[in-house]
Design goal:
Elements: E1 24-35, H1 38-46, H2 54-67, H3 69-72, E2 83-91, E3 95-106, H4 111-129, E4 137-147, E5 154-155
Helix pairs in contact: 2-4
Amino acid sequence: MTRLTHLDEHGAARMVDVSAKAVTERVARAAATVAMQPATLAEIFAGGNRKGDVLAVARVAGIQAAKRTSDLIPLCHPLPLSTASVDFEAEGDAKLKITAACQVTARTGVEMEALTAASVAALTVYDMCKAIDRGMRIEAVELLSKEGGRSGAWQR
C-alpha cells in the first residue's frame, strides 16, 4: 500500500521534504470543461459579453492562479514557474475545454499548478457568464499528463 506523503508517522499533515530530490525539468498539463448553453458558448467566441473578453480574462486568471497555487493549496511548495499557459477550444456547440500547461525546473512537480490554472480559468468563465447562463457546469477537472522527476512520464 502506498503511504500518503503529506502525512507523518503520526498522521499529522506535513509539507513533504523534497531536499533530496533531483532538480529536473517538470511539465504538467491539466484540463477542465465548462458545459453551457450553445448561445453562451457562441457569445464567448464572438466577444459579445458585456463584462469583457471572457477568454482573455480567464486566461490571465488561470496563469495568475498557477503562480499562486502554494497560497491556495496549503502543503504545496512555492515554485518558480518557467511558464504557464491556458488555452481554450469549443467541444461541440455547448462545451468549452480549457487546457493549462505549466513548466518548472525544480525538485517537485507542477501538477497542482496546472490543475489550479484550469480550475480557476473555468471558475472565471462561470463568473463572466453567470448573468446569461446560471446553469453552466464545471466538469472533468483532470490531470492530462506530467513529465519529469523520479516517477517519470504519465499520461491519461
